[in-house]
Each structure stands twice: as C-alpha cells, then as structure tokens.
Amino acid sequence: MQQLELDRLIIIPDFEPPHKGLSSDTASPQQRLEMAALMADGLGPRAEASDMELKREGKSYTADTVEELHEMFPDDELWWLMGTDMFLTVQNWYQPERIFRYAGLAAFSRSHDDTGEMFEEQSRYLSERFHARTTIVSLPQVREIASRDLRRMLAAEWNGGNVDPAEYLYQPIYGYILKEGLFGTKADLKNLSDKHLRAVSYSMVRAKRLRHIKGTEETAVALAKFWGVDPDKARRAAILHDCTKYWELGPQVETCDKYGIELDELERESAKLLHSKTGAAMAKYVFGEPDDVYDAIFCHTTGKPGMTTFDKILYLADYMEPNRDFDGVEEMRRLVWEDLDQAMLLGLEMNVEDLQGRGVPIHRNTQGTLDELRGRSQ
Ligand code: DGI
Ligand code: FE
Ligand code: FE
Fold this sequence. Notes:
Elements: E1 9-11, H1 29-43, E2 47-49, H2 52-56, H3 62-72, E3 78-83, H4 84-87, H5 96-102, E4 103-109, H6 117-130, E5 134-138, H7 147-157, H8 171-180, H9 194-202, H10 210-227, H11 231-240, H12 249-258, H13 265-268, H14 271-286, H15 291-298, H16 309-320, H17 329-335, H18 340-357, H19 364-377
Parallel strand pairs: 1-2, 3-4, 4-5
The protein binds 2'-deoxyguanosine-5'-diphosphate (DGI) and fe (iii) ion (2 copies).
The site of one fe (iii) ion has 5 residues, from helix 10.
C-alpha cells in the first residue's frame, strides 16, 4: 500500500480459480473469504476483503472482476496485484486485453532474483502488445515460501514433523486454520497448547482487540503468581476471556440457551453483558477448560458476590492491563499488589459511576459485588 500509494486495498478470494483445480481438502470459498477478512482487518482501515467473486460464482476470471471494479470506481486508478510467477504468464489469462484496459499490474517480488531481466522483458512485451501499465512491488520482508509448501508444513506439524508453520502466518489466520481443521491440521480444540489456544482465540476477534488480550494475559499471569493461584489457568482464562466479544446479540443469546445459561431481562438485550457468559461457554464446552476458568470468564464483566481470588485476578487484569488508560488506573495498579478486595472495590465504584454517568442500567451482579465489598470493608 505504501509503495503504490494506495488509498484502498481490496483482497478478493476467488470462487473457482480458472487455471487450476483445487484439491479436495482445501478451504471452501467462504473459508477463504473469512481468512481474507481477518488479514484485511489486521492491515487496518484501508484494507478490506471482497466477496465479489464468490457472489458471481462460476470461474473467477480477473477480466470480469476488473471490469466490475472499474464500474464501481470509475474515477479511480486500479492496480491488480499478483505474484511474479503469475506476472510472467498473464498474457495467457482469459481476455487479458480486458484486464489491461482498466488496471495496471503490480507484481510482488520477494527476492532480488525476481526483479531481473525476465521481469523487464515481460513488462516491455505487455506494454507493446496490450499498452499495459506494469510495476514491481518489492517485498523483501515477506519470507519466501510457496503456498503448497506451507500447506504441507501445516499437515506435517500434526504428523510429528519438526516444523513451525506459525512463523509464516498471521497469527489469527493460523488460528482460523486450526479451528476449522484446514489443510490436514488435526488440532484437538479441547487440548490446545497455549500457543495454539492464543492463535485460535485471536482468530475470533477484531485485530484491534489483540493488544488488550495480550496485556490481560501478561497481567493475569503476574497477579496469579503473586497471589499464589495457578498461573497456567490464569493465562488460559485471559487468552479466552473476550473471544466472543464481537458476536451479535442473536448468537450470544442462542449460545446461552444452548448451554442452559439462564439470563435476566437486562442480559437478554445486552451483547456486552453476554460476551462473558458465552466466552465462558466456549472455554468450557469448545476448548475443554476446567470450571474455575469457566467461572472467572463468566463473571469478568460484572463480577459476582462470592468471587474467588482467581475470579478477582481475571476481573482486575482485564481492568488495569497496560493498554488501559483512565483516571484512577495508577491507583488500581498499586492496589492490586496490596489488597485485591480494595482494588475490586475501586474498580466497581468507578464502573458504577461510569455506567450511571452514561445512563446505562447497573446489573444486579455489579451492584451485588459492590454491596458485598462495601460490607466487608466497613
Ligand atoms: O470486554 P472488555 O471491553 O475488555 O471489558 P468488560 O468485559 O469489563 O466489558 C465492559 C463493558 O461491559 C462496558 O461496555 C460496560 C459493560 N458493563 C459492565 N458492567 C455493566 C455493564 N453494562 C451494564 N448494562 N451493566 C453493568 O453493570
Ligand atoms: Fe470482556
Ligand atoms: Fe477484556
């Protein structure tokens, strides 16, 4: 995006590649779209994934897509991005003259070998034959690997191979692959390593939340060690605590109904209050976490009367992890090493004040926890 000064980057997974058959264990068009959306989200607000080739169905000819894009953005300069291997044979694509009429071609080069004479010769040829605009985008920071080799590596990880495909993949996409069991991966979701649990959880949320989740993990582990509760469990509770944060109200309520989680009226209409309950349900029923992890995630938004030390640690880590910034956060960061109940009291008081200021109804568990802590500190 920097090199071409693009103000928009659209990632367009194809429905059916015209030039090669897809192997049977490959990702579905919908799954590829979801991975493209994860990547776009990670790239920032100027990137997006498009379902235009999925909607069109049939063979996904670039000529059709480029023409459609030109109709959508008639005044914009379009660049079609592709790997250098494709660039060298693009004249054999379906109706290449229709591609070049509306878009320039930008070829990625991953090593200096790519950018040699062959590239210049091809550029000259395309320019003479089609009046094509071409350019090269140099990406030395992208590690050289063919997608076929990466898919092999993904499968090999589950067959005792000494490989680490995670090195080549954006973490949420790696997690998505594991969660969906794509490309020969055989992750048992109920027995994931910390590394795999992180990736899978990150694949469920927006990229802007990752810093908060990482901060919560780091803080929860430190607090758990300090207060003598199991740091490994605190870590996993923190990794998963917000995994359903972006679910719509509908799926939130359905999931609670499915697992027999009773809801009051306020909860039934607040996705914000429900994400802690559905997050707990995912942790227990999908990821096989024990009951104390379930309980801590379940009450991490409102608290509840009778919280355990473990529950308080997740609640407070979520509240004051290093990315949080509000008046009083420094006081809370001091208190958590002295007295967990005093820190909880401060947190709940600030929360209630904030909710009241915004005219948001206080949940009975928020009030109940506050009353209990006040009673105890008197
Ligand atoms: O998920 P996070 O953003 O990391 O933090 P969280 O799980 O503590 O959720 C905070 C949100 O929950 C915030 O938008 C306000 C909402 N919330 C917390 N307590 C109450 C509440 N909403 C209502 N209606 N009542 C509460 O008592
Ligand atoms: Fe939360
Ligand atoms: Fe959180």
